[in-house]
Amino acid sequence: MMEPAVPPRSGRERGPITPEGVLQWLLEGNRRWVGGQLVHPHGTVARRAALAAGQDPMATVFSCIDSRVPPEIVFDCGVGDLFVVRTAAHTNDGLVQGAVEYGVDEALTPLLVVMSHQRCGAVGLAVETLNAGRAAPAHLEDVVEALRPAYEAAKALPGDQVDNTVRAQIRLTVEQLHHDSMLEPLESQGRARVIGAYYSLDSGAVDFHQA
Ligand SMILES: [Zn+2]
Predict the structure, then answer these.
(1) From the first residue on, what is the mean pLDDT of each consecutive set of 10 residues in the chain (211 residues)?
(2) What pLDDT sits at residue 14?
(3) Distance 50 CA to ligand 1 centre (A)
(4) Is residue 137 situated within a structural domain?
(5) How far is the CA of 38 from the centre of ligand 1 (A)?
(6) How many domains are contained in the chain?
């Protein structure tokens, strides 16, 4: 099986690649997923061996735990391509944000994608719990509380409350990461870029927020 053309890597030895170049690469992989033309690149023993001494991923993806949205599949890439941080509805705290910082600053990925998705169950749980004025069981309450700002931002909007909250959570997470003390200077220097993305369960398409 032919492997798709892959642009130069972003790591220390192979020279820089722009955030826009990585975005195009992700878009091409997602088009293959949408069109049912997956090539499953970078899944060979040779690839494993080539990366054994060090990783050199293209992008950091901060996304939801949902089993239907595995980043390596929806972007049709493979081992060593993505630095992935996943939590319920990409809820964030210091430990999580440290992992995201590691991907961007230590693994030198020029693009950070904050990706949520249609019909997010974690957001649905938060909306249901907060609408009812209840507490969620055990540590799910931590997830619900982490989603409260997105819930508050979206609750007065017309339309689907869960989808509006999903989109607010993307926006608020991107804003938060724009102001991260490690990421902000990288963005202002053009070495890294943080963007939001929304994944459609129905079509498989990722809609990147260009702003
Ligand atoms: Zn989700």
Answers:
(1) 51 68 95 97 94 92 98 96 97 97 89 98 98 97 98 98 98 97 93 96 93 46
(2) 53
(3) 33
(4) yes
(5) 23
(6) 1
pLDDT of residue 47: 93
Residue identified by tokens 């974690």 is 122
Q: Is the residue at 3 inside a domain?
A: no
Residue found by looking up tokens 């060593």 in the block? 80
Q: What is the 88 CA–ligand 1 centroid distance (Å)?
A: 6
Domain hosting residue 166, numbered range: 19-208
154-186, pLDDT tens digit by residue? 999 999 999 999 999 999 999 999 999 999 999
Contact 9, 83 (CB under 8 A): no
DSSP reduced 3-state for 148: helix
State the DSSP H helix or E strand holding residue 83, giving kind and residue range, or none if neither.
Answer: strand 82-86
What pLDDT was estimated at residue 106? 83
CA of residue 65 to ligand 1 center, whole Å: 6
Residue 206 Cα, ligand 1 centroid: separation in angstroms?
14
Residue 128 CB neighbours (<10 A): 14
Dist. CA 200 → ligand 1 center (Å): 11
Residue 53, token pair as written in the block: 């001494």
Q: From the CA of 73, how far away is ligand 1's center (Å)?
A: 16
| Residues bordering ligand 1, an ion, CB closer than 5 Å | 64, 66, 120, 122
- CATH number for the domain spanning 48: value is 3.40.1050.10
Let me know if residue 139 belongs to a domain.
yes
Instruction: With respect to residue 9, please indicate whether it lies within any of the assigned structural domains.
Output: no
Q: What is the pTM of this model?
A: 0.93
Q: How far is the CA of 120 from the centre of ligand 1 (A)?
A: 4
